[in-house]
Amino acid sequence: MQSLQDIDWNTWQGKDPATLTFIIKDEQILLIRKKRGLGAGKINGPGGRLEPGETMLECAIREVQEELCITPIDPIFCGESLFQFTDGYSIHVHTYMAHDFEGTPAETDEAIPLWFPLDGIPYEEMWADDIVWLPEMLKGSQFKGRYLFDGDRMLDHHLDIF
Ligand SMILES: COc1nc(N)nc2c1ncn2[C@H]1C[C@H](O)[C@@H](COP(=O)(O)OP(=O)(O)OP(=O)(O)O)O1
């Protein structure tokens, strides 16, 4: 498996459905330093895997509550990312954005909250795909991306924006 063409995307289903949520307020974006799980050590948005019986939106809100002790207000769906790893693992990530929240961001055993200016997003400390789609999301586009990873290394990608 070396390129996206090696994958049958018509039948592809991610092993794990998951969410990412980005809070953007006052020209700043709220990110986390992830302390455990897939991508531990990287900077990302708060998020995690869907639990049985919940909707994607419920998952997005719960993960932000668990990781940062705040509740995003009215998150809106922005796009999806289909990640295939060469070891066979796959994850289908649904991404949300909110412009306000209740509470005060706090460090938890899962994450350290970090605010960055929108023109200073630390892509070099994030997953390699983020610089592909996050600027499009910030411009207001919806997106659907497909990515092939070998561990941390992005081998191939394709992004559609709407
Ligand atoms: C491969 O590229 C990725 N890029 C980005 N930006 N985000 C990714 C990528 N792969 C996974 N993610 C995100 C999606 C989820 O938000 C997390 C993974 O979920 P996690 O391991 O944190 O799941 P939890 O259910 O929270 O797990 P625990 O509570 O058991 O730690 O990474």
UniProtKB/TrEMBL annotation:
UniProt-listed Pfam families: NUDIX (PF00293)
CDD domains per record: NUDIX_MTH1_Nudt1
Biological process, per Gene Ontology: DNA protection
Alphabetically ordered keywords of this record: Hydrolase, Magnesium, Metal-binding
Cofactor: Mg(2+)
GO molecular function, one term: 8-oxo-7,8-dihydroguanosine triphosphate pyrophosphatase activity
Domain of life: Eukaryota
Primary role: Oxidized purine nucleoside triphosphate hydrolase which is a prominent sanitizer of the oxidized nucleotide pool. Catalyzes the hydrolysis of 2-oxo-dATP (2-hydroxy-dATP) into 2-oxo-dAMP. Also has a significant hydrolase activity toward 2-oxo-ATP, 8-oxo-dGTP and 8-oxo-dATP. Through the hydrolysis of oxidized purine nucleoside triphosphates, prevents their incorporation into DNA and the subsequent transversions A:T to C:G and G:C to T:A. Also catalyzes the hydrolysis of methylated purine nucleoside triphosphate preventing their integration into DNA.
Name this protein carries in UniProt: Oxidized purine nucleoside triphosphate hydrolase
Species whose genome carries this gene: Capitella teleta (Polychaete worm)
